[in-house]
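Reviewers of the previous submission asked for a worked example of the structure-prediction workflow described in the proposal, so we include one complete record here. The input consisted solely of the amino acid sequence. No template or homolog information was supplied to the procedure at any stage.
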Amino acid sequence: FIDELHTVVGAGGGGESGSMDAGNILKPALARGELHIVGATTLEEYRRIEKDAALARRFQPILVPEPTTADAIEILRGLRDRYEAHHQVRYTDEALVAAVEMSDRYLTDRRLPDKAIDLIDQAGARVRLRSRTKGTDVRALEREVDQLVRDKDQAVADEQYEQATQLRDRIVELKQRISEATGDGQADEGLDLVVDTESIAEVVSRQTGIPVSSLTQEEKDRLLGLESHLHERVVGQDEAVRVVSDAVLRSRAGLSSADRPIGSFLFLGPTGVGKTELARALAEALFGSEDRMVRLDMSEYQERHTVSRLVGAPPGYVGHEEAGQLTEVVRRHPYSLLLLDEVEKAHPDVFNILLQVLDDGRLTDSQGRTVDFSNTVVVMTSNLGSDVITRRGAGIGFGAGGAEADEEARREQVLRPLREHFRPEFLNRVD
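From that input alone, the workflow returned the following structure tokens.
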């Protein structure tokens, strides 16, 4: 068996094409059937073998596809005994299912069953290490008892009986603590240490920064108070705050589509009314810091050739090795708020990219890596129709209709230029 089989091409040949490298040395034995080889490589690296047609002809390619989630769960069940013996823990069946489902959803840049196996391995190690901290404390207490016994014996030898009595009482107290600790620890020994769904969720959260564990009381309070928290920072935008809060609550409760972003919003209005401030407040309330807001000024993407900067330049072009400005920042910080400022100024081709983000929650960069947007909040701002809003206070006297009818008419006037500028399929994908 040869792992990374593509490395035999050119190995030992000094870098010259047609030289006597490892691949050419193997060809005669392979052709005569004297040598039986099973090799492993990736589809991308197999191209190096395909360049040597004579070597490629001597192998029978067998594609090994990624297993389905059901198959991956069965694989983990087969490996369960080995990992239980190694970590001295017990895996619940729910933990194995969670490892496959969570890795499939959140670790999109890797493949099953490898990423699921990594999760149960790390979760088992974390649970085992936690149990050992108690053992470490016990050993420290035992060392202290040994020292106190020596001190007590010395005090008796020196006829300092009062000090010896105090030391004896202290020894009894420490031995009681040791017996309590070891008594609790005996229940934790061996396979009574359990790796459950929460243990798997903790590992995923540490790897991705995405809170996938069940809602803690602290997070429940934060989500339930999200609307009032936003109202404190953004005053007078009641409807916008309510819609944004409802979308976030739906997503965290698991009621919205798992493939789409947490929320996608288009904020319309003149400058200075709080569009960007609401985005900042949402990033701070949802992700704990305003630094989790990624801002892209779409006026920088007005030309057709600048569109490639979002996902990276295609092969053969200058800058192909550089990552896309949109894809790379979300790949590194999947749990963040994406602010696309003055989106109406972007080139129309930009909206083709945004359509895929808003609908499928994923985007492929120039390196062929799929970036997951399902844990981001997408906020776009625009000044379209703002002249209608700024003119509303120009008239003097009574309006022709009631306040509600006037508001509805003004809303329609604002949305008219929006429909003229953006395509219907784009507007339909915005929350």
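Residues 185-191, 394-402 have pLDDT under 50 and may be disordered. We consider this example representative of the routine output the project will generate in years two and three.
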